[in-house]
Design a protein that fits this description.
By secondary structure, the chain is of the alpha+beta class. The protein is built from 20 helices and 35 strands. It binds zinc ion (2 copies).
Length: about 650
């Protein structure tokens, strides 16, 4: 008998060799029906895996993210089988899971077109209906290489694994694929799937290699979830920030600088509203602000380690025969400021912010509007402190981050903690102290978090903040990283209580990350219907005819004096056309004025997204809207 510890802490005694599936059955017949895989001592395995020793076991279902991923990956095999049955010359390359779905790279001379999707899906349906089991077979690396001799792609896959045991999965008699697994027990566990698109992709992303076909698919645990997902995609298309940015004259791109955003004046109003808000937050949370040069001598980047670790992503220039690099990060510049004078523990924690412009050379293929750009501004900050101060500083950053996200209307966050990777610098002791400080900070705030074991940077552990937008898309925004490397590389010191010189702990933190990307996210989250405090134009005054133009201008003056961003539409258009135009520009408030309103010093207010319109005096309008702006109220309603 062996002892199995379940996630709730209970212990079951089972016969050695019992499979995970049999265990699920023993726990409950309801569970075995929905089980798709198991986690054995933290390792995801097939349900058919025997449990041979004491272990902790979790049965994985489609309700778990991991279960959904295993199902999606299994669906990639089913799609591959379907494609191979239609085009027997297909050579399979690689079929991983991605967010919301999966893809499979294939080598096939005939191009697969969207018109072929239905045919492939029909074949997939047959395979799913047949409920064929996924069966794992293992062999040594040499045996696997012999078996796949002549298949350059799969041979390459084998050569890239560290493991000496290679596994294959067969699905019925007619399909077998090299794979590490795990998979769902049988094809019928794939509930609702769809092929989404096809694109070209180089083998290993290497442009000197053959262009393959990458077929994208998605799979969900119910038909309803699939339908909801497809609807969210439709909605995302409508909210595409690249389209809205152009329509609303917020920003543009030009081939003179691929990946460099041109922010137009209306875009800058949003930008500056964010900057003003962040500066208020910096004041509240005790940050100083600095600014460091964009171009700095190449030698500095040797010292910082960027030359050795980040060179491919950097821009360089030479002036008077001296090599310079354009900064990809702000921290080395800050270290130079730190070194301009002596520091004492009494100044700590020292929180220094920089809204720094950085350049990072991304491959042209990954560019996507404001989401992936090559020049961007980070809401960067660094904290120098003592090891004892780490926990309270992390708590401060978490509070700051939450306050900022909530002001933008994001309520749905998740947090991931990444711990010591195999390759790292710094003693185990300092890693333990700092990783525990991060954990304690999260626990102190009673924040649920996921641990990414071994996923930290080589120089220290980190916490990442993810938010979900209204289309349930997850965005990694903020990060808090402890750094044991940079202060040492730059020889930064402080004088401690005992009068000795010590190296400070350095914390890198960003809350929004890239301004450009964050503004893109905001535009899509709100479909450009921005909250009042961010709207480039908060109100527009619409006289019903020329006769009311002068009253309209009086109203505008009054609103401007009260610091509202507003214009007057004095065009010769009919009032309905003026309203339609303001509506298409997503104006929060449209103030219609005519002779009646002029007499009573009032306006008829149309509120974005609200059916009824209402008449109020101008003073009343200001009395209601001014606090909305100051409090970052997300609701426009009166
Ligand atoms: Zn697989
Ligand atoms: Zn930094």
């Amino acid at each position: 008998m062996v002892k199995v510890t379940l996630p709730d802490g209970s212990i079951l005694e089972i016969a050695a060799g019992t499979t995970a599936k049999q265990l699920a059955d023993q726990i409950g017949p309801g569970l075995v029906k929905v089980a798709v895989a198991a986690k054995l001592n933290g390792q995801l395995v097939d349900l058919s895996t025997p449990i041979t020793a004491d272990a902790s076991v979790q049965i994985i279902t489609l309700k778990d993210d991991e279960g959904l991923e295993i199902m999606r990956h299994s669906c990639a095999h089913i799609m591959a089988e379907a494609i191979c049955s239609i085009w027997p010359d297909t050579k399979l390359v690689y079929g991983p899971v991605i967010e919301d779905g999966f893809y499979y790279d294939i080598d096939l001379d005939e191009p697969i077109k969207p018109a072929d999707f239905e045919r492939i899906e029909k074949k997939m349906c047959e395979i799913i209906k047949a409920d064929k089991p996924f069966i794992r077979k293992e062999m040594t690396k040499d045996e696997a290489l012999a078996k796949l001799a002549g298949d350059k792609y799969k041979t390459d896959n084998i050569n890239r694994t560290d493991s000496d045991i290679i596994s294959f999965y067969s699905c019925g008699d007619d399909f077998e694929d090299l794979c590490r697994g795990p998979h769902v027990p049988s094809t019928a566990k794939v509930a609702s799937s769809k092929i989404m698109s096809v694109a070209g992709a180089y083998w290993h992303g290497d442009p000197t290699q053959k262009m393959l076909q990458r077929i994208y698919g998605t799979a969900w645990s119910t038909k309803k979830e699939l339908d909801d997902y497809l609807q969210r995609l439709e909605e995302a298309k409508k909210r595409d920030h690249r389209r809205l940015g152009k329509q609303l004259d917020l920003f543009s791109f030009n081939e003179a600088g691929p990946g460099f955003a041109f922010i137009h004046s209306k875009g800058m109003i949003i930008w500056n509203a964010i900057v003003d808000f962040l500066r208020d937050m910096h004041d509240k949370y005790g940050y100083q602000e600095i600014k460091t040069p964009v171009i700095l001598n190449e030698q500095l980047w040797h010292k910082s380690g960027h030359w050795d670790n980040y060179k491919e992503n950097m821009y360089f220039t030479t002036v008077d025969d001296v090599g310079y690099a354009i900064k990809p990060m702000n921290c080395p510049g800050l270290c130079l400021i730190y070194k301009t004078r002596q520091h004492s523990y009494r100044e700590f924690p020292m929180r220094v912010a920089e809204l720094g412009v950085v350049h990072r050379h991304e491959a042209s293929g990954v560019m996507h509007g404001l989401f992936r750009v090559r020049q961007f501004t980070i809401d960067d900050a660094h904290i120098f402190c003592t090891p004892e101060q780490i926990e309270s500083e992390i708590i401060g950053v978490i509070e700051l981050a939450f306050e900022i996200y909530q002001a933008f209307g994001f309520e749905n966050f998740s947090i991931e903690l990444s711990t010591k990777p195999e390759k790292h610098i710094g003693s185990d002791e300092i890693w333990d102290i700092s990783t525990n400080a991060l954990k304690d900070a999260l626990e102190h705030k009673t924040i649920q978090y996921k641990i990414n074991e071994g996923d930290g940077a080589f120089y220290g552990p980190k916490i990442d903040f993810h938010i979900k937008d209204c289309l349930k898309r997850s965005w990694q925004l903020g990060t808090i990283q402890l750094d044991f490397s940079m202060p040492q590389r730059f020889g930064l010191v402080y004088t401690d209580k005992d009068n000795t010189e010590k190296t400070p702990v350095m914390i890198h933190r960003a809350v929004l990350g890239s301004f450009e990307r964050f503004i893109g996210i905001l535009i899509e989250h709100y479909g450009a219907n921005l909250p009042l405090w961010l709207a480039p134009e908060q109100a527009r005054i619409l006289p019903i005819s020329e006769k009311s133009n002068s009253y309209a201008e009086t109203v505008q003056k009054k609103l401007k004096n009260a610091q509202l961003r507003c214009t007057c539409d004095l065009s010769n258009e009919k009032i309905n056309a003026k309203i339609a135009k303001a509506h298409s520009e997503k104006l929060p408030y449209m103030l219609v004025v005519g002779p009646k309103e002029a007499q009573s010093n009032s306006t008829n207010v149309r509120i974005r997204g609200v059916q009824e319109n209402t008449t109020v005096t101008i003073d009343e309008f200001l009395r209601i809207t001014k606090p909305k702006i100051a409090d970052k109220d997300l609701s426009l309603a009166f």
